[in-house]
Write a structure and sequence with these properties.
The chain has about 260 residues and is α/β, with parallel strands linked by helices. The chain is built from 10 helices and 7 strands. Helix content is about 40%, strand content about 15%.
Length: about 260
Amino acid sequence: MDDVVYDRAGRGEPLVLIHGIGHRRQAWSPVFPLLTPYRDVIAVDLPGFGESPEPSGGYGVEPALVMFKELFTELGLDRPHVAGNSLGGLLSLELGRAGLVRSVTALSPAGLWNRRQKVYAIATLKAHRALAQRTPPHVVRRIAATAAGRRALTGMIVGRPELQSPETVVEDAHALATAPGFEPTAAQSRGGFRFTGPVTSIPVTIAWAQHDRILARPRVAELRKIAPAGTFKLLPGCGHVPMSDDPALVAKTLLDGSR
């Protein structure tokens, strides 16, 4: 399989964490130490993102499922728990539907959208990528040095930008600007990335950020079609990527979802 980069630590049942498009495994850093006393935590860089090389099998849901199946085997994981944010939430739901995991926790997952919502979300993320590519690193560093600057740079993505460190903002901007997987993954959304479910026979938690400015929150009736026996939660005060907004709440959501 392709050389997928990951961080692994902790004890207990295995929990695999999957980031969103344009992000990296460090998106989970705020919650990682809150999980490791209770779970064997594996935070993955998706192929073409972070430090993982581009995939030999291409981009999209099906290649990702193959990759994760091979990764689980390589790491000795027998149907681990899985949690994901945005694109990672979509992939987590797909892993659940494929019967490859024992529980799913999806934080503001992609794929539960109509065409208009999808176009808006992808266009917004592309605009953020273009901004990151056009802004020199030293300028990003200067802007990120203040709370107001961090809000200007990341206010569409997180709910509490002032809680992020300047270093994290700079490094996330670099990861977004340089990820070779961004365009081919975004291109896959034109003909797919629509998840209709259902995911049955395993616990499913779908938690939506209260202040998500990227993805519209589906109605509970729509979520019931995705996960008929699922648990649905709201993450107060959080943005689309909620891990740094309220690490304790997100960690509790992941631990409750992976029991």
